[in-house]
# Entry
Amino acid sequence: MVQGVHFRAGQLSPQEIGHRALAGALSDLAAMGAEAGEAYLALALPAGTGVDEAEAMVRGAAELAASLGVALLGGDVTRAPTLALCFTVVGWASDAGELVGRDGARPGDRVGVTGELGGAGAGLALLDGAVPGDLVQRLGSQTRAALHARYATPRPRLGAGRTLAAAGARAMIDLSDGLAADAEHLAQRSGVRIELSLDALPVAAGVSEVAAALSLDPRRMAATAGEDYELCVCLPAPQAAEADLLQQPVEAIETLSWVGSVVEGPPGVVFTDADGELSGYEHSF
Amino acid sequence: MVQGVHFRAGQLSPQEIGHRALAGALSDLAAMGAEAGEAYLALALPAGTGVDEAEAMVRGAAELAASLGVALLGGDVTRAPTLALCFTVVGWASDAGELVGRDGARPGDRVGVTGELGGAGAGLALLDGAVPGDLVQRLGSQTRAALHARYATPRPRLGAGRTLAAAGARAMIDLSDGLAADAEHLAQRSGVRIELSLDALPVAAGVSEVAAALSLDPRRMAATAGEDYELCVCLPAPQAAEADLLQQPVEAIETLSWVGSVVEGPPGVVFTDADGELSGYEHSF
# Structure
């Protein structure tokens, strides 16, 4: 995670920077249904970085690691022109066959997403100052804090990933680039068409207000804004129904929303709403 | 390994950059006597980097990995303002007690170094254009190529590290900063005084000529130039004698030179020669 590429100077505290970089790495393990094991950090610091600042980055990561049972085992510190954090994380499964890839989606599968979408994108819009001040005030401090947290301190869905893998997930990906772009990865790798219902997307609280301020359809924001680090999963219909994941008291998945299905057709993602098929839902936000 | 910090643009081929970055990471495993297992690469590329160039970096690392039985298992690619390669390597031992740290040196130990010293520093001096052209020519193409290789494509001493660990090494470090600086780490961590004989240092072929061109004592170059990635080891005297490492047909250690001893005294490194104790042998080259 590189300053100026994955986050901007001054928008995040050092502790948030450390947390977010580790969360992004662990999110890839979540998407495989792996048990997270060890993490290693290579920290590249520009001249003039204070010891306090560097320690706060490590602390942010260490606290997330501890809360997830991940062992932050070591790493390295080096000088560099730009601040960058490189986390390497190792995940485990008792059998390689338990791990979920991106290429197993098949026509007939149902497509689900965990949690809520668009929150991180809205949080970033607030940090960017893209939302007029009076609208920011009207959001209320709790919503503002929640949107900021969705961007600044995402939590990798490790428990949800393992639960969905055990439930028979055939393909899974974490939403770092946004649902439109990440579902496209699943579609291309699996060689299938994925139809997603824009009206079914679980839009995070506050996203509608921020989207309105930006003259955007909130559903578009939920579909294309990245960095929510939720999971998008393809499950065979029988397992999806049987598992009844929404009703199970699985702490790991607070919610799972069914947002579409896998169909025959040329590989790719199509968004629909009550008016039919929509175009232009590439990663545009 | 960051461009502009650990290597300079234009001095190394992409393949050498990949090789060297992995070698530097594996060298730390060698210094612990660990069996090298897996390697992961996070590659940060500035805009405009060609695919050929990026692939050549990976190829350089992959070829070194294959030659050492190391599994280059994956990684990530990202955009960044500066070229950087972050290798995370995982080493193994059947028992944690087999691994060698930096804090076990005790008075009475003998101090040895593998291979030859100063070659990488001389190779870098050639790349820097610090040596006059006529002297460069006089070195001969074979010596020039050998010095370049010592800098550009070092080989981590994994076999030597395991052999020395099995022989009873009490403390070990790889020579990335140079013998003077790295032995100082051993001295400080172990709380001992290390006396090194400048005349006993194994000076690599060609170093004398390059040092002369730079008006340097070649022994100083061997003592203070870094990036040779040889090992410095402290062995109890009986084991050092018994093991008779120099005579054993251990392919892993081509040579092991005894260069000093661990003594009582305030923690630190002292260099001596026929004239007695020398001063100013900090990492200065």
Q: What stands out?
A: The interface with chain B takes residues 1-2, 4-6, 40, 42, 44, 78-82, 84, 86, 88, 90 of chain A (CB under 8 Å). The mean pLDDT of chain A is 92. Chain A has two domains: 14-98, 110-278.
